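In the current project phase, the collection of sequences with tokenised folds has grown. A sample record is quoted in full directly below:
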Amino acid sequence: MPLYGTASGLRQPVHAADAARGALAAAMSSKAANKVYTISGFDTISYREMVGRIFDGLGRRRLIVNLPPMLWKFAFALVKPIYPTVTPAMGERMLKDLAFDSSDAVSDFGWNPRGFAPFFQSCLSKPGVAMARMRWPRLTSSSG
């Protein structure tokens, strides 16, 4: 059984600004009228690499821990009273490929996302942001 920390599932992260630009391009394209698109980021990378790039963007050392499935599930059981919506399936999902073909978006409205290299330093220097980073977020389930 694989370690959850390997996080080998493929991802294609998309910058929010690229998604917004793509939505505007689709709205202005007659080829895109009444169609639904799958858009994917430029890079196809593992979940582990995606998280690593987020650490890089925060200017932090990459710290990703490999855990055996039983330890992962035990950790989730410990935090369940505090975060009831957190489940072991979150760890299992890190192993699944979630990469998609966005060639229709490329041909119909010119989808052209940038590579995934987030940079957060500018927002970290804003007043109040450093304190907000220290608080644990309230996790909620999303339906949809």
User: Anything to note?
Assistant: The chain has one domain: 4-134.
